[in-house]
Specification:
alpha+beta; Ribosomal Protein L22, Chain A; four-stranded antiparallel sheet; 31% helix; 23% strand; globular
Length: 235
């Protein structure tokens, strides 16, 4: 994993940067058993509850890679990374000046980190696995629905998935998830969005899509001081 990070030109993000690491867990499936040794007791306990091996391996490899990446930034053994979650599932790094987020869709995994108060990341398979057009009333504001509906069908399909990932990343950054109705909060690209009333302890965040791969779309959300998003894809 360390060699793969070097090949992907991964480095600890600067004060104005967020780093996003994307990989396909299938490429690392042979290392799933070894990767289990990097997880803490809580992560191992959750891993064994997955019914299907493929889902279990993706979870193990995602969390092991997460720990390796954070360990590289914190100069710590992956097993000693102080990675925990709040009651609402928000990742926390005790005593570290970094925020981090994890997302996976099928076999695809995205990890984000930045030296700011918070960060959120979302990755989704392309083409989308669900009918996003049917879900527009559920996750789009009225303005977003009108804007997307004006597009032709191919552009609309892509725009909806990009919007979905931006909104998911934003909700993660604010630590609210499904506690906030996504149809009440816009996710315009590259514009500051105020947190919902339940998350006013967080700063305004911008959300934007990163350069996509042939089979995935992703987005990251972070405070406005984070101006540079660095994408690293493991091969």
């Amino acid at each position: 994993m360390a060699d793969a990070l070097r090949q992907a030109d991964f480095a600890t993000p600067r004060a104005d940067q967020a780093s996003v690491l994307v990989f396909d867990a299938r490429d690392m499936a042979a290392h799933a058993i070894e990767a289990t040794t990097l997880l803490d007791r809580r992560e191992r306990s959750r891993a064994v509850r997955f019914r299907f091996r493929r889902d279990r391996d993706t979870y193990i490899l995602a969390h092991a890679a997460w720990r390796v990446v954070l360990g590289a930034c914190l100069d710590a053994d992956p097993r000693d990374v102080p990675l925990a979650t709040t009651m609402d599932g928000q990742p926390r790094l005790a005593g570290a000046a970094l925020s981090t987020s994890l997302s996976h869709s099928g076999d695809l995994v995205a990890i984000a980190l930045c030296p700011a108060a918070t960060v959120g990341v979302d990755i989704e398979q392309w083409p989308a696995r669900i009918d996003l057009e049917a879900l527009m009333p559920v996750f789009c504001t009225h303005e977003e629905s009108a804007e997307v509906s004006a597009l032709d069908i191919p552009r609309r399909t892509r725009a909806l998935l990009e919007l979905w990932t931006r909104k998911e990343a934003l909700l993660k950054a604010f630590g609210v998830g499904l506690l906030t109705d996504p149809a009440t909060m816009g996710a315009p690209p590259n514009l500051a969005v105020m947190p919902p009333a339940s998350a006013l302890h967080y700063p305004p965040c911008q959300t934007r899509n990163v350069r996509a791969g042939p089979d995935w779309v992703a987005a990251v959300a972070a405070p406005s001081a984070i101006r540079d998003i660095r994408l690293h894809v493991l091969r």
